């Protein structure tokens, strides 16, 4: 995967030493991820979904509504949380270029930080939207897990899916208008909400009884297919929350959705869901 090495370089190295300021973080991240490539302002390409202030630093819903600029299609969408220990927090790579894409994901925020969404088109152009998000504290990535690690293993990898029309989803409903003027066949009529049972251990959390650090174990890869046709692959990080929910839009006409989850321990979980709208 193209972005996997970038995730490791920009993320794991940041676990060793974090820049003192948000400006320093992006100054180091930008050349590591994109070199000297031009990154254009998002304009009408990206609508960033991020709160002014996080109400829960352990589970902050972050995401974006994306539509490709005229004459181009979406190749990948990256969520970057500058001041998190693994800043490149989630990368969605399209199985085939798409005209529109929407997602949200429950993320940890380790402290006040700029949040960025960078979109790459099939022509290799980059667009970025950013927002500074305030938090209620610092250190969410090191906060003790909410579930006993032993108990968490009993439900590890279980998934639930809910479907809804975008019109019922507030900000996510805007994808309808974003895609309305697309002359592509990939217009979106529904969205999926996938809830995953996984402890998402960051490697920075301390067991409150043994006082030993819990080894890192997080969502590393999520592969989504509709009717056996791949839609996208998400590469994750320790920024993804414990037992997270992710929403994403679906192409029209599918009858079944398949999900393959691989975590950082190499465990793989497969599940299929019928695409029947209520």
What does this structure look like?
The chain has helices at residues 4-16, 22-34, 149-154, 174-180; strands spanning 39-41, 46-49, 60-67, 74-81, 88-98, 100-107, 113-121, 126-133, 159-164, 188-196, 219-226, 229-235, 245-251, 256-263, 268-274. The chain has 278 residues and is mainly beta. It has a single domain (4-274), classed as Immunoglobulin-like. Strands 1-8-7-4-5-12-11-14-15 form a nine-stranded mixed β-sheet, with helices on one face. The protein has a six-stranded antiparallel β-sheet with strand order 2-3-6-13-10-9, covered by helices on one side.
Identify the CATH homologous superfamily.
Answer: SoxY domain
Cα radius of gyration in angstroms: 18 Å
What portion of residues belong to β-strands?
35-45%
Briefly note the CATH topology name. Answer: Immunoglobulin-like
Q: Return the domain count.
A: 1
Strand arrangement within the widest β-sheet reads 1-8-7-4-5-12-11-14-15
- The outline comes out as globular
Q: Quick one: biggest sheet? A: 9 strands, mixed
Number of helices: 4
User: Which runs of at least 5 residues are low in confidence (pLDDT < 50)?
Assistant: 3-20, 166-189
Number of strands: 15
Distance between the termini: 35 Å
């Amino acid at each position: 995967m193209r972005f996997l090495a970038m995730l490791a370089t920009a993320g794991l190295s940041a676990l060793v030493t974090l820049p003192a300021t948000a400006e320093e973080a992006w100054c180091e991240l930008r050349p590591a991820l994109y070199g000297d490539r031009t990154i254009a302002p998002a304009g009408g390409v990206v609508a960033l979904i991020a709160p002014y202030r996080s109400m829960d630093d352990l589970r902050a819903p972050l995401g974006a509504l994306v539509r490709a600029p005229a004459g181009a299609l979406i190749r990948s969408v990256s969520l970057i949380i500058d001041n998190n220990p693994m800043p490149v927090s989630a990368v969605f790579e399209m199985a085939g270029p798409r005209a529109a894409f929407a997602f949200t994901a429950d993320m940890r925020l380790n402290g006040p930080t700029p949040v960025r969404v960078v979109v790459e088109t099939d022509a290799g152009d980059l667009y970025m939207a950013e927002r500074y998000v305030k938090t209620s504290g610092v250190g969410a990535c090191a906060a003790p897990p909410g579930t006993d690690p032993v108990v968490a293993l009993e439900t590890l990898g279980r998934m639930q899916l809910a479907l809804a029309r975008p019109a019922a989803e507030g900000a996510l409903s805007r994808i309808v208008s974003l895609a309305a003027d697309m002359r592509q066949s990939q217009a979106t009529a529904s969205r999926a909400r996938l809830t995953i049972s996984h402890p998402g251990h960051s490697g920075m959390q301390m067991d409150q009884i043994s006082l030993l650090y819990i080894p890192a174990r997080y969502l590393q890869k999520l592969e989504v297919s509709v009717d056996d046709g791949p839609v996208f692959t998400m590469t994750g990080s320790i920024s993804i929350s414990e037992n997270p929910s992710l929403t994403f839009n679906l192409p029209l006409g599918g009858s079944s959705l398949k999900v393959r989850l691989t975590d950082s321990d190499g465990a793989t979980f497969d599940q299929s869901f019928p695409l029947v709208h209520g």
